Amino acid sequence: MQTYGSYPQLIIDLKALSHNAEYVKEKCEGAGIDVAGVLKGTGGAVPCADVFEKAGFNQLASSRIEQLARMKKSGIKAPLMMIRIPMLSEVREIVKWCDISLNSELKVLRSLNEEALRQNKRHGVILMVDVGDLREGFIDTDDLVDTACKVENEMPGLELLGTGTDVGCYGSILPSAGSLQKLVDMTEAIEEAIGRKVKYISGGATSSLMRIFDGDMPERINHLRIGEGILMARDLEVFYGYDMSEMRQDAYTLKAEIVELKKKPSLPIGESGVAAFGRHQVYEDRGVRLRAIAAVGKVDYGSHEDIFPKEEGIEIMGSSSDHLILDVENYPKPLSPGDIVEFSIDYASMVYLTASDNVKISYRN
Ligand SMILES: *Cc1c(COP(=O)(O)O)cnc(C)c1O
After folding, report:
1. Which of 39, 83, 165 maximizes ligand 1 atoms within 8 Å of its Cβ, making it the mutation to test the pocket?
2. Which of 108, 220, 223, 227 is nearest to 168 (CA)?
3. Pairing outcome for strands 34-38 and 9-13
């Protein structure tokens, strides 16, 4: 879709991203761990993929085939990894555009095998193991081993690269050394059955970096798939108190334009019903205040709790699909329509902002 004008605008600082990418790459390399750099948080933006490729990640990854195809078409050479279980309806594109996928269903694996043979390719697969978080993956060892043997012995179009797990996605389970050891144990059951060692045991995502920081990663884990820990580098500090001061947390700036500036009461006037999207809202009476409306809304960032005014004296009061209401009573400088307000963002709002057709994305080198 065409965007008009310059706002709302999301600025992505590629230097900051590059710093984080190199930092994570180095930390993992030091621990003997390969990394897939996960780009889905930025909508698979190609300039970000370029940064990840330069940092030397072993694979670039996304949960959306469209993003991976775009990377490939734009000249990315690094191996591409699909990190959502492929849909049967997209198997042809999976084999065409990416080198590796994460899998948990025999039916999908058989279809990938047939398609790989048809396209004259060997498609790499990682079997997902559910160690308790209850998102994707085999939960039963016999089922896992049985499927691994079928891939190994009956599917020449596939290369069984190893296993992987997800934690902290649905079930809020931590990547404890114990949970990851379970993955290793189940993988060793496969290795015994197929008579060889697998290349990768992929021990999770950003949260598994805690095992590297703490120095207690189970010996055989040799691969992670990391998105947030590079793109934002915020979660491990905010949720688990890790020191992330060596990483750049300022890679993104959302800019929005003020379209109205008026003194208004803080308590709505009239009979009360519901607000936008049928939400029941509570309002605090702060008297008459100077308020600004910025031309950006939930359609762009999801929830206004995931964006943060950068300047003192600007407070978010609420928002609807396309309007963000700001209390600017305490802002020290005069404001007028046309002025730009800046926000920092988190992972959740980044996902929406980079997917919105109305947000202009620009890059700072
Ligand atoms: C999103 C995702 C990742 C990356 O997660 P982060 O927390 O952003 O590091 C890794 N693996 C899978 C399967 C995912 O879906």
Report:
1. 83
2. 227
3. unpaired
Residue 304, C-beta contacts closer than 8 angstroms, at least 6 positions apart = 298, 316, 318, 319, 324
Residues 60, 231: Cα–Cα separation, whole Å = 13
Tell me the two tokens of residue 334: 């005069």
Tokens linked to 241:
């108190």
Calpha distance 278→283 (Å, rounded)? 15
- Model confidence at 281, pLDDT cuts 50, 70, 90, reads confident
pLDDT of residue 1: 55
Both tokens assigned to 203: 């021990």
Q: What is the 83 CA–ligand 1 centroid distance (Å)?
A: 8
DSSP string, 243-279: --TTS----EEEEEEEEEEEEEESS--S-----GGG-
The answer to whether residues 297 and 266 touch, using CB atoms and an 8 Å cutoff, is no
The mean of the pLDDT values for the chain is 95
C-alpha span between 178 and 165 (Å, rounded) = 13
Confidence of residue 2 (pLDDT cuts 50, 70, 90): low
Residue 190 class from Cβ within 10 Å (0-12 exposed, 13-18 middle, 19+ buried)?
A: buried
Give which of 91, 82, 89, 13 is closest to 51, Cα–Cα.
13
Share of the chain residues as helix, strand and coil, in percent rounded to the nearest 5: 35, 25, 40
3-state secondary structure of 338: coil
pTM confidence score: 0.95
- What are 60's two structure tokens? 């670039």
Q: Helical H runs in the chain?
A: 14-30, 46-55, 65-73, 91-97, 106-118, 141-154, 177-194, 209-214, 228-231, 235-240, 298-301, 347-353
Protein residues with CB under 6 Å of any ligand 1 atom: 38, 40, 63, 83, 102, 166, 205-206, 225-229
End-to-end Cα, the chain, rounded Å: 25
H or E segment to which residue 165 belongs: strand 158-165
Q: Half-sphere exposure of residue 18, counting CA atoms within 13 Å on the CB side?
A: 10
Q: Which residues are catalytic?
A: 40
